[in-house]
Specification:
Structural class of chain C: alpha+beta
Helix content of chain B: 25-40%
Radius of gyration of chain C: 19 Å
Chains: A alpha+beta, B alpha+beta, C alpha+beta
Oligomer: heterotrimer
Strand content of chain B: 5-15%
Amino acid sequence: MTIDLKLDDKSEDRAKTLAQGLLGTPADRPEGHLKVTGAAIYAADSVPENCAFGMLVRAPGQGALTCTNAEDIRAMPGVLAVIRDPRMIRNAAQGTANEAPVQGVDHAAYTGQPVALVVAESFEQARHAAHALKIIAEGPPGPVDPDAVKPEGEPDAQGDLDAAMADAPHTIDAEYTTAGHSSAPMEPHAAVADWDGENLTVRASLQMLKYNRNELADCLGIDPENVRLLSPYVGGGFGSKLGISAECVAAAIAAQELQRPVRVVQHRRQVFETVTRRSETRQRIRLAADADGRLTGLGHEALVSNLPDESFAEPVTQASAFAYAAANRLIGERVARLHRPAAGSVRAPGEAVGVTAFECAMDELATELGLDPIDLRLRNIPDKDPQSGIPFSSHMLAETLRDGADRFGWQGRDPAPRNQRDGEWWIGTGMAAAFRVNLLSEAEARITLTAEGARVETDMTDIGTGTYAILTQIAGEALGLTADRVTVKLGDTDYPPGSGSGGSMGAASTGNAVWLAALDLRQQLASKMECDEGDLTLKDGQATCGNTSRALSDLLGGDTLSGHGHIDAGKAFEDVRQSTFGAHFAEVAVNDITGEVRVRRMLGSFAAGRILNEKTARSQCHGGMTWGIGMALTEGLTHDRRDGHIVNRDLAEYHIATNADVPPLEVHFLEERDPWAGPMQSKGLGELGICGAGAAILNAVHHACGVRLRDMPATPDRVLAGLSAL
Amino acid sequence: MQITLTVNETDHTLDLDPRVTLLDALRNHLDLAGSRKGCDHGQCGACTVLVNGRRINSCLALAVMHEGDAITTVEGLSNGTLSPLQEAFIDHDGFQCGYCTPGQICSATAMLDELDAGWPSHVSASLDGPCELTEAELAERMSGNLCRCSCYPGINAAIRDARDRQA
Amino acid sequence: MKHFDYLRAEDTTAACEAGFGRGAAFIAGGTNLLDLMKLEVMAPDTLIDVTRLGLDKIEEEDGGLRIGATVTNSDLAADMRVRRDWPVLSRALLAGASGQLRNKATTGGNLLQRTRCPYFYDTDTPCNKRTPGEGCAALGGETRNHAILGTSEHCIALHPSDMAVALRALDAQIEVQSPEGKRRAYYMDNFYCLPGDTPHIETMLEPGDLITSVFLPAPKGDRQVYRKVRDRASYAFALVSVAAVIRMEEGKIAHAAIGFGGLAPQPWRDIEVDATLTGAKPSAALFDKAADILLQGAETHGGDDFKIPLARRLLPAVLEEATS
């Protein structure tokens, strides 16, 4: 049996009625032991018997490709194959594509495109032979500069922004830029492919297996039923593992040709090129406000880029559609078709860069108005979605702003910049609001219940988000089992299809599916207890209904019960606007001599419905806030101006935050239940922490030293230029 | 080349291409995959192991150059029971995806020894030592281990807690 | 990585003899060499392991210190004598790389560290340093991490070391053993070659020459400062760094030796800067003048334009700290 739920309406808070006391606790991750001992097995960690090793080869330029020495390479020691197969893919598929991305190896759309695979008996042989393979690219590079092409798309207009700008006593019209970003998960993309007759098994590092399976099958031209993907542990994703990636397809092709298992791990430099990056953005933000600081006009236009034939455009203005009220609006993106590596989802696509720039502009407006930046935001909270007119499912911005301000010690702040000094360092504080749309996607889960406990199965992944922990808690809570009696099995397409990890949807989507599977079991148990499911209390392996109480093991009597849950988004995501909210606060120091910026402390106050596990939720927010530090200060892809290739494609030159870049981070969650978000009443949290975090830092930089940094990352050279210009 | 590597107090005789790094010897030839490959160029720290008690990036070491050295990997840190650092990493959620975690834990193990030996760091106010494990010292000394999930608060709390437990 | 023969040298003589062979390279820490070999930027035919030659000692000599070529960066930075009398060296070492890398990287290897120029690292783009005569992709490319002093039309690559900047300010000498068994020494001032039209030739070393030690003479200044500006708080190469060794006498600068990182194809020192400072009374005007002299011939390439204002602000701040 299956319990299906299409979310068309509010849900009752069922978790409230449950008795185990597991949900919401800061429980340790059940897989923790495996991770701290190194025993968790990631994609490239197991080398099967007779495994061959493949190395991808990049296009050295753009245009038509020829390979001039494949025969010589095949003759090199240990080399088994040089594969240039039309089924190989140009770049990783976009998230939820569910079909093959652009394929082929005869033409490079961007420098760095994977265009061959060299397979050898050993990794060392393959690496050397891959380097020796000569690929010649003939053709002038396509456009690589966003300013050199006419972009596609137009923003959406409501009212008359130009008129509002002309009439308003206070306006901001500023341009912001953000550099491209690499997800840079610590685990490079990797695959071990093995065929058994017509059946292909790939151990891979992927976020969304049910889509990835179809994508891989489509790439290879085989039935998805013949493809099994295994990703029980994924060493970080952040969007880069949403879609099938080049090594999976290449490994599968090679394993088929050689009739033996083949492992392909992308070199870190290849990860930078072949996997989708976050597009660079140029954002024009216009704000018109009356004398009281109420917005009359709001413009947010963004220029982003992507390769031809890629559907994705960084949705920079996604949150601007509903963040603040204003009658006259102009909001949207334009896409420049460029021959840079493909762009796609990177943690919080849209809001990460869009809210950040917008919240910088709001700070500029507050300064212009002489208004506290928190007040400015409070005055412009809309009572319904300003674009569509639908109500919000819940709105917690004001609460997070006030909570964060209290905890951070915002009151009494002297708003004047360049007012606090510590030796060479200017000290300042800043804040920003956080918004992230809340989504849910179709998900299924199965729970098998025996006297020993429950086993949860779904092809959902845990990319570090805490899926193992929260699904353990949901199942344990619903079935009255302690955590040690719940086993969660993930990352195997043989299990029911979960939502996959992406868009902050995993916990709510698959979590609710697990709840529904548990509800299915609860109904079966209630029937054995001869009571209504609603009257059944399950706790510590004991089923209680009225005066009757029986041990689960007794009730099951050796039987195995199976519960199945299936959830999908419905009108609850159309009739109301669902979002998570938060407030970021930062204190920074800016070196007056060198332009170096150090974040001294950060605080975030967040509301995202029910917090399923406070420990893993906090870690997610730490991650987001740290990415905010990176975006604001250190991270940026550099493209060669001649052929668009990524110049800083390693972890020495692409600067993600180190331990020393991250100050103490304080995270607070506001108690909230969002009935529109499903029976668990929890919303996505994996991305909220990055949205706007960088703005709090840059606003603090302005407060510290008086320099407005509108180009991110604000590296010392840019800060120095600002300081020099004062 | 035939070489003998001493890993986690066990000798292993291997016939290796001289190009094989210590990391790849562990991962591909000794089935000790706990040492992770994040960048293969000494830029992330995921491959950190201890050689004669000192932390190094095993990706930038040739296996053949480490004959006779005592190599300790994450698999060698726990002998049936978790080390205090490993326990503390679980308690303080010092990881998310877990990929950099073995490197973090190996690194922290040796880092605490460096601190006890009085080694100064970039952020030490004085070079005269000894050094206290301040937030700044801890963060600087652990900066050779990147964590993209950004678990630095949990990592640092875990290291501090483990040190307190050992004291 | 190309296949190579691995040879474990038993003594320095054998090492030098083997090193004289075509395509031979010495390996000690390997933190830079293996990095480059994996990308086939360097592709030696033979690797000579010099880690077991007993060159890992730090010994006192003539009031100075003799540092074996394979002493690790960690051991050198932590040496109590270095910390006490040559603190700028400890500081420079500790500002570089990571704890793990410093445990592996050696003194000799650090001196020979190759540039971080991204085009040097990218064998799909031309590089005169990698392949003489091929052209320079950095010119006209992305130049944020390039040199603005001492460059040529053939190469604008930067020397990335921190340690070597301090050694240059400390007037260190590099002892070299040749394949013929002869030992000779170079002052840091004479050890490196500017790129000119031979950017692939970076030092005075000839085939088979092995750095055996670095000699640190008795410190000439007790006021030692190393300051590095970088893009993140740790584990990043310098945008600009300054090593200052100063001795003050009666309110005047009696000795000034200033090394610079992040500005040039070699750890940089400008005798005019030192001469301007020496004998003068510290003042803001003097420090600005020193910065003007340092940067008078600077040529920038767009991305690295900022290095002029950065160096112009950083040098006076370091001098202020070292003289006050």
